[in-house]
Design a protein that fits this description.
11 strands; seven-stranded mixed β-sheet; two-stranded parallel sheet; 381 residues; single chain
């Protein structure tokens, strides 16, 4: 019995200590900047490729932010698979309203993998003229110093610079739950991993130096995995380089979210992580507050103290630190935020086992599977 008490107590101390460390790292890395970064003295040319599909919440604002960057040498390449995509008129209007920015819209679908986003990006990569290329999702809101911040994160041993998304502009409880997943949980762990030298790619924003990816086989090499960011991580590490994260992650406006959509998105990401990095995914079950609270309750039961008191104290410490992190970083905070974090941790074990149980998911109307061959069956050329 005594050994069990010591083991449970040690586990509680360990999980709470790791929680403190990850929170401290995220607090330093994710705090908003007081002043934007200045342009570099010799700014390199940069091409931003934005794959598009449909109309996301706030897309006029996110795509519009592409045209207002405080950087002298960049051009934009927007990519859609179908000419009748509802986003096309918006892009054409934005291009017309900003004649001072070099921008083009490319239409077509080159199938090089089962990943429709990667297929959509292929023509944009081919059309890019700059030595530095950013692949940025349509729902990323770019600050005026977006390019400067990406370039500032690049160091001699870097092969790729990314930014995890942080949820902004939530509307309703389930959007708050999405924020609870993205901000004080996923971003916190990603910045801790990056600071420990284990950074991994996030497909929302990826800054490539063209020659690095071309040396590894070009953008087609990212078809080696179902998810292009997982393939990017493995490719960069295989080259003996590091994936680094930009300080101050870029926001993704969420708008209204429904419970089913949040569930499907989190299960999809869980299955992709399980397929690409099963060892790391195995540890996710003990990374949330739910397990820490249960361990505290079990310890209290064995030593004869208040179970509810132990649960309340652990939960207050865990979620209170997350709340302070969100507030300090300028992430959305409301009276629903603690409830959303609790809901996230109640869902997490179920999502975890769903990640192991099945391989299929749907993304923007495309049925996919993490167990399928990621390479396309029809050539692109």
């Amino acid at each position: 019995m005594q050994i069990m008490i010591w083991l449970l107590a040690a586990f509680c101390i360990f999980t709470l200590s790791i929680h403190c460390c990850t929170t401290a790292v995220a607090l330093v890395r994710c705090k908003p900047r007081e002043l934007p970064l200045r342009r570099p003295r010799r700014p390199p040319a940069v091409t931003i490729v934005r794959p598009l599909c449909g109309l996301d919440h706030g897309i006029a604002e996110t795509l519009g932010s592409s045209f207002t960057l405080d950087y002298p040498r960049y051009d934009l390449v927007f990519c859609v698979a179908q000419a009748n995509d509802p986003v096309v008129p918006l892009v054409e209007r934005l291009i017309g309203e900003h004649p001072n920015v070099r921008a083009t819209l490319l239409v077509g679908n080159d199938r090089i993998s089962i990943n429709p986003k990667l297929n959509n990006c292929l023509k944009g990569w081919r059309a890019a003229t700059a030595p530095w290329i950013v692949l940025a999702d349509a729902n990323v809101l770019m600050p005026r110093d977006y390019i400067q911040r990406l370039l500032a994160a690049w160091q001699p041993d870097t092969g790729l610079v990314c930014s995890p998304p942080v949820g902004s502009d939530p509307d309703g409880f389930w959007a708050d739950v999405e924020c609870a997943f993205l901000n004080p949980y996923q971003a916190r762990w990603q910045y801790f991993a990056d600071s420990a030298g284990l950074g991994f790619a996030q497909g929302k924003t990826m800054l490539w130096r063209r020659d690095i990816l071309e040396a590894a086989g070009g953008i087609r090499a990212l078809a080696s995995e179902v998810a292009e960011d997982a393939a990017s991580t493995k490719l960069v590490r295989a080259a003996g380089l590091r994936v680094r994260l930009v300080d101050g992650p870029f926001p993704q406006p969420l708008g209204r979210r429904e419970a089913l959509a949040v569930w499907q998105r989190q299960v999809r990401w869980a299955r992709l992580r399980r397929a690409s990095f099963p060892l790391y995914f195995s540890a996710e079950l003990i990374s949330g507050g739910f397990v820490a609270v249960l361990a505290a309750m079990a310890t209290a039961a064995l030593i004869g103290t208040s179970i509810l008191g132990a649960a309340a104290a652990t939960a207050a410490f865990w979620y209170g630190s997350e709340l302070l992190l969100a507030y300090a970083c300028g992430w959305p905070v409301s009276w629903r935020t603690p409830l959303a974090a609790v809901m996230r941790d109640l869902l997490q074990p179920v999502i975890y086992f769903a990640g192991w149980r099945d391989a299929g998911f749907e993304w923007r109307g495309n049925a996919m599977s993490v167990d399928a061959s990621p390479a396309a069956t029809t050539p692109a050329d």
